[in-house]
Design brief:
By secondary structure, this protein is mainly α. It has a domain of 54 residues. Helices cover 80% and strands 0% of the residues. It contains three helices and no strands. The longest helix is centred in the middle third of the chain and has 24 residues. The chain is flat, with a radius of gyration of 15 Å.
């Protein structure tokens, strides 16, 4: 499987964002925070498993995803309702 180009990734994110905006599914902050927290925990645990199995590339990938999720959670926490 080949890695999509930056332009392809941006296009896919843009398409998803438009779909969510059209469906008006971006209003439920509590639900988003719950899902993000679960995904953060999942990636931390998967990263630990990868490290134990000496899959350092997989561990780093999970760490980067968890770091990104953490940044998003932090941003949402800072937004006043």
């Amino acid at each position: 499987m080949s890695t999509p180009s930056a332009d392809e990734r941006i296009t896919r994110l843009h398409d998803l964002t438009e779909t969510l905006d059209k469906d008006n599914k971006r209003q439920d902050k509590a639900s988003m925070m719950k899902v993000l927290s679960q995904e953060y925990t999942r990636h931390i645990e998967e990263g630990k498993k990868c490290k134990m199995n000496k899959d350092l590339g997989g561990a780093e990938a999970h760490r980067l995803i968890a770091e990104s999720i953490h940044g998003t959670i932090t941003t949402f926490e800072a937004i006043k309702e």
